[in-house]
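U., I forgot to send this yesterday:
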Amino acid sequence: MKYLKVLYIQVLIGILVGVLVGWLYPSFAPTAKLISETFINMIRMVIAPVIFFTIVSGVAGAGNMKKVGRIGVKSLIYFEVVTTIALIIGLITANVIKPGAGIAVPTTANTQVTEISQQASKINWGEFFSHIVPSNIIDAFAKGDILQILFFSILFAVSVKALGSVGESLLVTFEKINKVLFGILKIVMKLSPIGAFGGMAYTIGKFGFGTLAVLGKLLLTFYLTGILFIFVVLYAICRYQKISLWKLLGYVKEEIFIVLGSSSSEAVLPSLMQKLTIAGCEKEVVGLIVPTGYSFNLDGTTIYLSMAIIFLAQAFGIDLTLGQQLTVIGILLLTSKGAAGVTGSGFIVLASTLTAVKVIPLEGLALLIGVDRFMSEGRAIINFIGNTVATVVIARSENELDLATYKRVVEGK
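Result:
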């Protein structure tokens, strides 16, 4: 019975019960969705202040601002390289396994596809980077816009550091406020089994298992690619930095199960920041890399987007040339970076990419609507693991990881 007191065991039970309830009582789906969304909202209510106070206390408390800038630049380079690798792996596996071959395509677009297409047409990807600068910081906090909060927090931290002793007294207050916020998070995380139950019951109750039979090959190909990315690419990166990927995954297993149940990596963002800090990563490194990674290091989303495009091309019998596939890579390198800032990002970003490619009909999106929810858990988990690894690896490369603490906390040595 002692195992029932362990959080990740409770979350796993919540997921399994959610599957059963969704399968046996599909009419429970609307209530289950309400339960899941309420839990995620409870997490989101602390995300903005946690990011703000963590970044300000971390960056303003850093001894060298040049180091902070160097870490930021290194992070962006790392994100771009790794997401490009994820893109290429997604394209290769989709071309080899051909999950779209023999799939019956819809003859007309449904209402949901039409709405998604209209939303995608309104997106101006050239304005994405200008959007990083908030016109109203209160509005940014209210909406929980991570990139805008990150931008303001860095400027605020630089200003606090310039104040000298006055700024130091302010940092002491910020540290106390942050402890209160993490206390709130600790309370909320006890409800994560219920949130995971709601998320899984909604997925099964709403979409059922029937869709899996039709598009099972795509689903299996996606998860196979995700496993390949994690245990080949991320494993190699960790091995190069002499870090055990298995031990790291074991350290954040509770968060992985919560992401699985809620289909949202955002649900564990504050918890991840706290755990990585406890594991020996410097606070300013965690404060910079984790929020930035949640917008720029979306490995799972990138794999999904590249694979979905090839899948739709195969379903429509369109043989994309190497040049066209390279064009897809180039477009996705831009559009995938905006995925975190767009509601219903997966379909909208995919629709905007298809519009830019101008080869594959948009009505093909109707094929993906039913199975998308079953892929969202995979996307969220890969995104989460990718950002966890990125933070530890960059901290290690910058000598901003206390190895003694890390080995004791993460590896149990």
